[in-house]
Amino acid sequence: MPALQPRALAAQESVFARTSREAAARGAVNLGQGFPAAAPPAFLLDAARAAVGRHDQYTPPAGLPALREALGAEFGVDPADVLVTSGATEGLQTLALALYPPGGEVLTLEPAFDVYGPQAELAGARAVPVMLALAPQLGWRLDLDAVARAVTPRTCALLLNTPHNPTGLVFTLAEVEALVALARAHDLWIVSDEVYDELYFGPRPVSPRALAPERTFVVGSAGKRLEATGWRVGWVVCPPGLASSLAGVRQLASFCAPTPLQWAVARALPVAREGGLYGALRDSYAARLDTLAGGLEALGVTVFRPGGSYFLTAHRADWSAAALMDAGVAAIPVQAFCSQALNVPGVMRLAFCKSEADLALALERLATMDAARST
Ligand code: GLN
Predict the structure, then answer these.
(1) Ligand 1 pocket: which of 12, 92, 165 to mutate (most atoms within 8 A of CB)
(2) Domain ends where: 274, 309, 342?
(3) Total domain count for the chain?
(4) Confidence band (pLDDT; 50, 70, 90) for 195?
(5) Are both 256 and 293 inside the same structural domain?
(6) How far is the CA of 342 from the centre of ligand 1 (A)?
(7) Which atom of ligand 1 lies nearest, measured to the CA of 115?
(8) pTM of this prediction?
(9) 66-108: per-residue pLDDT in tens?
């Protein structure tokens, strides 16, 4: 019998998929995988219903022209410099294949979203993680000196993520400036994962593209912005002149993103912007963040409040993912986002993009767990 390749054997089940499977099997409230409880906005669903049966065949691999135009208007770029992908994940995969040379090193900030490392490996490169340290009083901190020290002659790219998953960090202008200066000094690409770009609770995130459009690729997600994570419509805003070569790479995977959904997103993006959807979502998520964070703090949990994203990280000495799952609450240990040991063990990521009722139920179950222990 022929054998599977080592890379296939090394591929693990996604921590998100595994957590959702276990949560469903055990009837746990799923604060693990980040997908919203609410239905997508009606104007998006109506646009999709109108497109199915009318727009059902392939689009060009670079994307539906109307969607590229809508994205060009959103980002203030030529539509020719925008690539539509089957989700942000495929955008990131396309960039790994197109940008990272064999043996190249990609600097990532750990804890990091789970696909960055394996995607670099599939491209024959590797991720070099720089840890974000957790200071118990201050929360997560970016150590710019550590990033600079990690650069070697093989470094080819900086992979940034702001707002950052799982920590919720939003990098400051000064931090983004320093990272861009580092990329310029060493002639690195910047891959900027900005899928939570409209989801922030303090200062608006700064994109490195604003400072270095010539070397920055911005990865975005209709699923995250429009609350439809299963639609698999994402995009990459590219430096001028590079999108058509990237389209040549991404067409080899899914050829094009789903056509009727591209139509619907093209319709919905301007409606979302003009109708104030993103501000309404921020308000609604800020309220749910308060519910979950306040409830956890009342249970003696230390909460590291996020500047953006729909995740918070939290810590209590006796907590573990297994103990929480036993209590009926699924969460993801931040250690699962790391290739080395975290300086503070036992930190959990909890998603608050769930219903108020589910957040209340999760808090009730955690309180019951504590009561059972103390008796
Ligand atoms: N971005 C989401 C999270 O971090 C889920 C990603 C996924 O399941 N592919 O939970």
Answers:
(1) 165
(2) 274
(3) 2
(4) very high
(5) no
(6) 20
(7) 9
(8) 0.97
(9) 999 999 999 999 999 999 999 999 999 999 999 999 999 999 9
Rounded distance between C-alpha atoms, residue 217 and residue 220, angstroms: 10
| 16 vs 22: CA distance, rounded Å | 10
Integer angstrom CA distances of residue 268 from 122, 225, 226: 34, 10, 8
CATH (domain of 92): 3.40.640.10
Cα–Cα dist 268/331, whole Å:
32
**Structure tokens, 369:** 């767990």
Please check whether residues 148 and 231 belong to one and the same domain. yes
CA-closest residue to ligand 1 atom 8 = 16
CA–centroid distance, 91 to ligand 1, in Å, is 14
Domain boundary among 253, 274, 295: 274
- Looking at residue 112, what is its pLDDT? 96
Length of the chain: 375
Residue-wise pLDDT tens digits, 270-311 = 999 999 999 999 999 999 999 999 999 999 999 999 999 999
Closest CA to ligand 1's atom 9: 16
Return the number of other C-beta atoms located less than 10 Å from residue 358's C-beta: 17
**150 CB-near residues (< 8 Å, 6+ apart):** 107, 128, 130
Establish if 319 belongs to a structural domain.
yes
CB atoms within 10 A of CB 215: 19
Question: What span, in angstroms and rounded, lies between the C-alpha atoms of 96 and 125?
Answer: 8
**128/117 same-domain check:** yes
- Centroid of ligand 1 to alpha carbon of 297 (angstroms): 25
Residue with tokens 């900005």: 194
Tell me if 16 CB under 6 Å of ligand 1: yes
pLDDT in tens, 99-134: 999 999 999 999 999 999 999 999 999 999 999 989
Ligand 1: residue whose CA is nearest its atom 5 = 34
Write the CA distances from 58 to 45, 64, 181, 337, integer angstroms.
Answer: 20, 9, 41, 36
Burial class (CB in 10 A: 0-12, 13-18, 19+), 1: exposed
- With the most atoms of ligand 1 within 8 angstroms of its CB, the residue from 12, 30, 35, 225 to mutate is 35
Q: Which domain does 296 fall in, by range?
A: 6-39+277-369
Q: What type of residue is 208?
A: P
Residues 302 and 223 in one domain: no
